[in-house]
Write a structure and sequence with these properties.
14 helices; 12 strands; alpha/beta; Rossmann fold; six-stranded antiparallel sheet; six-stranded parallel sheet; binds flavin-adenine dinucleotide; Elongation Factor Tu (Ef-tu), domain 3; Four Helix Bundle (Hemerythrin (Met), subunit A)
Length: 451
Amino acid sequence: MAEVPSKSVSRAQFGSPGLAIGLLVLYAALLMLPLVIAGMAGTRGPEAFARVAAKNFALVATTILFMQAVLAARIKQICRHYGLDMVLRFHKAMAVLAVTLLIAHPVLLSLGSGSWRLLTSLDMPWPIWFGRTALVLLLIQGITSLWQRQLLDFQVWRKLHNIAPVILVLGFVHSWIVGDDLESPMMRVLWVVLMGASVTAYTLHKFVWPMTRKSKLWTVVSVKPETHSVWTLEFEPPEGVEPLQHAPGQFNFLTLYRGDERYDGEEHHFTISSSPLQGQTHTSTIKSSGDFTSTIGATKPGDQVAIQGPYGSFSYVLDRPSSKYLFIAGGIGITPLMAMLRHMRDTAADVDVTLIHANNTQDDIVFRDELDEMVDGDAPRLKVVHVLDKEEWEGVTGHVTRTLIADVASEDLADYEIYVCGPPVMMEKIYRMVLRMGAREARLHSERFWL
Ligand SMILES: Cc1cc2nc3c(=O)[nH]c(=O)nc-3n(C[C@H](O)[C@H](O)[C@H](O)COP(=O)(O)OP(=O)(O)OC[C@H]3O[C@@H](n4cnc5c(N)ncnc54)[C@H](O)[C@@H]3O)c2cc1C
């Protein structure tokens, strides 16, 4: 039996549904606040409905933009209630809403005043040009974010996203100078407070916290090849820093410092593949799948790493307890599921787990020996089915199908808590398939390795 658990992992440690709802209500109230102040301030004269709508849209949209930096700052007190991926999806959805409202803003103003000069004339005062420039930059940012994978390399997109503060400053100055509503002292106070919150969140996230992390670098203590293209890196905290407290399945951000000019300082997400009960160290298991990860095997014990985390909500300990689990992994998508299995083993969990692990060839199967050992153990009661799609062998070949799931788990998945992590196409297919097999959506959990 593995080492006795020294610390427990509980749902409460990682978030509260009450606070999650409370924060959402607070956010909605904050968006409404400028409208309430505008209504009370009496700075607007009688005007066409379209102009009123235009101004309201701008107030709400600018408030959303102020809050975007707060949402993107990975503030643990916020993220732990939802999971960072959910917060970032919300950030994206709110950006789309803000851009839509801001596109409508000049159109409605023009409609309300019966003149299209605001949209067509070059002869406009500079604060209007500030607003126009902010809108164009926002559109560029919106389009490159929605279609990042098609348009730009991830790291280039990430750098481009750094124009956000410029957009915010332009929007702030524009609204401060031309907005009737900003004549109200109360609105000015609100605007300064929101801008302050935004600048603070951005500065902490981009400068202060990275510097703090860099002053307390962790050490790579081992680099273990798992397959021809996958390595497990083990990290030890610096003197005086606690080991990472995480739920099995969560991920962290790693920034390696290996004396490599090209990649030192480049941050990437990686799942924590070890059990939370491992002790002082933790691991990430990384597949060579792009320019940075293709250098991962060159990492040496003694190299330094900045670690930010944990984040994410893909963890069986954060969901409702169950006695039956179906795990489906594609390739390196095994890492969060392995962390959960290791935790189940370390806590002698009284559960049944069926793991379907899809790979191209036998050489691509990560953790094969350890999984075999777990199958022979008592807890969890584990069944593992390897599926290969690019090699004929004595096991299952092809793709993960409904028949396979029915054979190894059940035709009816209503009782299962299901966790899926793999390539996008596979995940979408499995999602639809298991729902058709009776899986409950609330019990179906997935982790995406792409943004
Ligand atoms: C929550 C999460 C957990 C992950 N866990 C693991 C894991 O345990 N093991 C593992 O091998 N991989 C994991 N990944 C994927 C890993 O982050 C990317 O494979 C890696 O960042 C690619 O970097 P690259 O420069 O080698 O590849 P690139 O050639 O730059 O890109 C390959 C793909 O990765 C995406 N990508 C690039 N950089 C990043 C980045 N910084 N963050 C997110 N996506 C990026 C790109 O959009 C592209 O689709 C995880 C990703 C996420 C979001």
